[in-house]
Give the backbone structure.
Amino acid sequence: MASFLEELDNCIRARFTLICVVSLEEESILEQLRTLCSQTNRKLYRWDHADYFQVLWGEGSAPNAKDPLSALTAVEHLENNAIVVLCDFHQCWHGQPRVVRKLRNLALNLKFSQKTVIITAPSWKLPDELRDEIVVMDFPAPGLAEMELILSSLTSAPGVKVNLTPAGKEKLLQAALGLSCSQARRVFSRAIVSKGGFDERDIDSVNESKKQIIRDFGPLEFFSPAETISDVGGLDVLKEWLRTREKAFGKEARDYGLPEPKGIGLIGIPGTGKSLTAKMIAGLWRLPLVRLDLGALFGSLVGQSEENTRRALALAEIISPCILWIDEIEKGLSVSGGDGGTSMRVFAGILSWMQEKTRPVFVVATANNISLIPPELMRKGRVDEIFFLDLPNYRERQEIFEVHLRKRRRPVQNYDLEVLAKASQGFVGAEIEQAVIDAMYFAFSDRQEPGRDFTTDDILAAVDKQVPISRSHRETIDQLRKWLAEGRAQSASLPE
């Protein structure tokens, strides 16, 4: 916030007469302006549609102006060394050429005074006539220091219990990043009302509150993953890589000099758990998971696809730290040029963002068809590592059967996992899960003994009826595995 105030003060002293501050945090903006005016001995006025003029700082009387034109005229007659905040004034210039003209006149006339008009608005869209007159500034989202102040102000109340370790407190504050000050206060206050204090369970509540930010934007879908690392069978190399980076988003890692992880590419055979892994990462790191639907980015209007892309990536940064899951990225980024170059521009926008992003957004890009992936997408610097998810080996197939039996509340010791693993050679995780489900259907509908529990033999019968993808698409799978054998990616699994 200090850098924002410094930049704003520089703009005011440089006689920038019209400034638009983009944010929904009107209360925080006014509080920061009070601080600035108290430090620089300026007067601070506010005008809005409901309460008209008010004096927020300094001595003086509020002008009597009840419409936009009268308010702008009143600004001209105020004493010098004043800041006037016009709240939601963007609503006044749509279809109002006189208001737009008056603002342009005001921008010129105030250059010879020490008065500045600040317009608060939720977006930066300006009338064409005002684009050269208004300086647009983004109000920064609250950082860790501001979040800690909010949390401290609430926990200082009598009777509030704080059951957080220093690491847990940092995780809670990190999770709150991306929320506005008022949103953070509401989430923290709700925890106090419901439980009388704070603990690490509130991290999930904070992440859930971020769902509201992207609710109405189609290309982004918010997930609240319940998957843990034990819900994924095998993939030990990938799991260990993730564990070593679990604390990489915290202050301790920054003090150590480590950069925040950028992302990973998950490439491999369909059904081997790429989507499940994205959900598992979010559960392991206690971060919100957002899925980007590339197909939904493309619109029929000129420039709409590019604007949707910019907005999607901006929203991901707003709720960061988070996981941005781009599923089957090769299908959405066709760069053949048959659509007038729209795909190329969308692709270039995503590439540039992945390279230059400064917010902690960890990208998980999954793909099945390697030949359609542009090489520049998966190079180091845009992602940290590329993992190949191969056909599960014998030990991994045992683990996958165990996962799905536990998931359906069955005692694992009642089943012969070794026999099942041998019988399912060449099966991917999704096919193993389906074999368990098919066995349950068969046992449940057994005519002679309806509703009996399913057995190892039932699962073996279901396995025997399936044609695994490694057999039905042998040539494609062999080509994929050859890509791994050539050393183009790291295997997500330990050797057999």
In short: The radius of gyration is 29 Å. The CA atoms of residues 388 and 484 lie 7 Å apart. The first helix runs from residue 2 to 13.
